[in-house]
Amino acid sequence: MATILIADDAAFMRMKSAQVVQALGHEVIEASDGVEAVTYFKERSPDAVLLDITMPNKDGMEALREILQHDPAAKVAMVSAMGQQQIVMEAIKTGAKDFVVKPFNAERVQSTLIKLVGVS
């Protein structure tokens, strides 16, 4: 079992993501913005992060940079809406390991988690 940090400003998306991740047997930490995501990452050292790109207070790109500055080996997958391909490419170049496009399906989240933490 891995610990997965889910950062998304939309409570519904956090809930749906958490349901999928928990159904795969993982523990979930939830953050409602980029500031919380960075704080929780530093405090709890999750095994992987599902990080929304568009969030208040600190967007996903800013949070990604801070997380990687704290831990260059951090396993982060960006979560994006359709039409954010340019930002996704920037995130991958910055150090994100994968991405999931909203609306996502459980199989895509599972394959991303396998890629990040090596377990299903």
* Spatial ordering of strands, largest sheet: 2-1-3-4-5
| SS strand fraction | 15-25%
Gyration radius over CA:
12 Å
Report the structural category: alpha/beta
Verbal overview:
With 120 residues, the chain is an alpha/beta fold. It has a single domain, classed as Response regulator (Rossmann fold). The protein is built from 5 helices and 5 strands; from the N terminus they run E-H-E-H-E-H-E-H-E-H. The protein has helices at residues 11-23, 34-44, 60-70, 85-94, 106-117, and strands spanning 3-7, 27-31, 48-52, 76-81, 98-102. The radius of gyration is 12 Å and the shape is globular. The N and C termini lie close together (9 Å). The model has no long low-confidence stretch (mean pLDDT 92).
Concise account of the structure shown:
The chain is an alpha/beta fold and 120 residues long. It contains five helices and five strands. The longest helix is centred in the first third of the chain and has 13 residues, at 11-23.
Record keyword descriptors for this entry:
alpha/beta, 5-stranded parallel β-sheet, Rossmann fold, 120 residues, 5 helices
Indicate the topology.
Layout: E1 3-7, H1 11-23, E2 27-31, H2 34-44, E3 48-52, H3 60-70, E4 76-81, H4 85-94, E5 98-102, H5 106-117
Parallel strand pairs: 1-2, 1-3, 3-4, 4-5
